[in-house]
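Q: What structure does this chain adopt?
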Amino acid sequence: MASTRKTQPKTVGFLDLTVWKTKLPDCQFAVLPASNTRPNPLATQDRLYASVFAPGAICALERGDGKLIWRRELPKYSGASVYLYERKLFAKTSNTLFALNPDSGETFWSFCPYGTDGESIYSSPSAQQNRVFIGDRRGYLHCLDADSGKTIWRNLTNRAGGNVNSTPLVVRDLVIVSTNAKTAVAYEAVSGKLAWEQGLDGPSVFEPVLHKRSVLVVSGSLYVLNPTSGKIQLRLFWRDSKVQQAASTPQSIIVMLRPEIPHTEISATHVEEITATAAELGSKTAMCFIATSGTKRKRQIAAFCPQFRYEASTRLVYLSHLGGVDILRPTTGAPVCQLTTNSDTRGGTGLVDVTDGTIYVLTGDGTVHALRHPAQSPTVSH
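A:
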């Protein structure tokens, strides 16, 4: 269970908040760690869409009662989330992007640039003005027609062999990606013409994040860039730690910090050493909350498999981890409440979605939980 060191928040079990829960069929391992802030499951007006990692599948459920509407199998393994754009549900495997009908799960089109052998796509899609953007592990950024899936343009982002694993960010007329070649690159979305390129201090796999009039890029450090020119406005770094994730709120920037991971040989004779190292790294994971005023608050967290997202509708941060979900305040990191799973989740919890006073959570065993938001209680307020 994750916790802050200074304040012990109210703890509530999933069972005490359950509105409904649904065990998805034929699920071995549901949750894949995310490289962006998209929730899994994704909540729409009347449905939920969940991406199941293994065996690969996309499931659609009634949001009101959790009834399974359809299940679409995907080859091998699915991505960490789905993406909805203009009545198309985008889902992916490690080598293919699918545009699905959200009502039935049927395929409108698919994009597989290098065949179905191997793993060639770790990036997730973004879309704007009927164009879909996605990177690949050969260093290309692809622009596809949203209606047909046909290639409009594609660009090699670097010649160093660096993957484009991040999720593209579309800002006005530019599409911005970060790469494993220690660069962030922007192209004109319509023409594919190079707009700018900025060097970074390390590989970058997490999505660029829009923050007010700037773009946040996660590398070894956190870069604050001008989206039009790519110039560095600010660079934030922490000794002995790397930035793993970033999120933007109206009042703050939030980053997840993980310590440098030492090389450890994996073998049966090193099990105790590896376990001890993992526990030590988990205890040193931290979140830093950087307010608009410049005030920084760093909070240590004890969590395995942590990932978080900011939810604008509640103005709160949701930290998913192996033991449940922690709810935090976005400017200070002060805990509001801890939600515990009450049982083994087989791989933790995905990034949650929140709407109409309900938290939707996918756990690693393939169960989708609809939970009454504890902040509705008079004892827990914003």
